[in-house]
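In this section we walk through a basic example: taking a raw amino acid sequence and producing a predicted 3D structure, encoded as discrete structure tokens. The instruction is simple. Fold the sequence below.
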Amino acid sequence: MILVRKIHKWTSVIVGVQFLIWLGSGMYFNFMDHTKASGHTYRSHHTVSLAWEKFSLREPQIVLQQEATSTSLALIQLAGDPYYLLNHQRGLYANFVNKYSLIDAVSGDLVDMGSDFAQRLAVLSYTGPGSVISTTFISGHVEDFPKQKNPVWQVNFDDDLDTSVYIESGSGRVVGHIDDDKRLADFLLMLHFMDYTNEGSFNNVQMIVFAFLTLFLCITGLIWTIDLAVRGQYSLKIFARKKTVKLFDRNQKSLGKVTISTHENLLDALVGHDIILPSTCGGGGTCGRCRIMINQKVNYTSADKLHFNEHELEQGYRLACQHFSDDVEQMTLMDITDAKKYKLQLIRSTYLSPFIKELRFKAQAKVPIRYRAGAFMRFFIPAAKGGSIPQDLPTAYQPSWQDVPDTQYQHGDCSRSYSLAGIDEATNELVFVIKMQHASEASMRPGIASNYLCNLSAGDTIEAIGPFEEFYAKDSSDKPLVLVGAGSGMAPLKALIEEQLFLLSSDESKTPRPLHFLYGARNENDVIYVDYFYNLAKKHAHFHYYPVLSQPDEDWLGATGYAQHVLALNWDNITEQGRPEFYLCGPSGLMNDTIKLLNDKGVAEEDIAFDEFTSSAA
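The resulting token sequence is shown next.
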């Protein structure tokens, strides 16, 4: 044990020195003048706007025919003259390997980016007092810009900051300015990212070695901690005990007493007593829904501070998922749902696409579960072994999984929330649409909950609580409905559509509300329930279905791009029957883009509802 302590101490010295370097360089980055540190002290950002009409430009088609190997053509201006920039090999970013040709847009002649031309461009981008003292062509590694993979001209000026301007030789692009201020910033950045070999990346050998040293520090610290615990220096939560806690509702009416374990957080411990607090994040502390009031002396967590103001924290407001019963004598529950805990038995599991399955469960309960369309349930996933490749993958879908590393892993217990895609009225089955989140690298685990649920066999059971009704259509409204989704975000939207078409259509006193459903997918293989929704659209004149593919095959005749973009293109047609309500569920990119579009269009906040997609992302 003495040897472990010595190793731990000396490792902590090495790690500590690097942490001090991080602290010092981090403070510099916080207080530095960003203009100077970026090398922009003498850089001009003024762009000359050309009067293109005064030039007799060559037709782009003729230029492209002359340069048959080019993949793209762009009209640019350099030093006040027009040029065509042709790309023969396109890199993902400008600093990646690109092969350009520069064509005079008037004469059609190929332009050679020599030192004189590079000097002209450098001088135009420079506002300092110096003059050019040297020009150097660099075809290999560019020390000042290690990520630059294309040849450049280095144009040096004799000013007080030793400014150098780098011009890309193929395109005339100003790669950047370097001066003494930026060299200092780059040096500290090198220290910060331990990039001592100037690779322009923090994914280097030094960082990897440091990561292993930190891991070793953690392991020796854990061994030391266990040793202290065995010797009775302090108690650990693994030695849990029972604790009796008094419960009150928000009106301070007594709800009796419960005995809970000090090892479980308060949110999960109350579930064992059939007391369900609202929670969409499954106990991660992000949704802020499981609000309670306890002794204000109990330290608050960062999640508590995020969701409560200082006055509320002083009163004792806390999140149940963030605290245990150790210091709790009594607890006020601010919200209690009508949700119940159920044991669900899997009836059928069906592939809808290579990565999405439809799961049908039946609750082992005397009374059928009823819920409003858009509700979700929280599943309790037990600790288990798992595999990254599904056990029952159909032959037709195997090519979509061929690049996924085949690994085995173990995971602990957790909980995740998934939206209901409907209830089969004939069989009283609960329908879920779940996407299996796969790992992109062998070192990563796939989504624990989604893969566990999708690998269940018919007859298997699992516990879940709910349903929680937080995302639903307004009963009192007669406005048109616009639903936008993608991937497994289909689930709550499908339920909302069926509610409007089937359940509410039986009420003859109500006029059917126009429905517009825009659903995005990558290709036809990823579009789910497509025939089902096409048939609904044929049967119900007020229901309109817009499947949108971002990577369609050549024979695809429908909309292409992204669902939010198709919404923007069809805005006038969709809104011609009145101002709609919008219901969104999908990946964050779709949600953010759509909400921005709606805000730009002046849609009122109360007419926008969205189901958080992150709760079902694992």
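Looking at the output, two observations stand out. The chain has 16 helices and 26 strands. Confidence is low (pLDDT under 50) at residues 231-236. In the next section we compare this with other chains.
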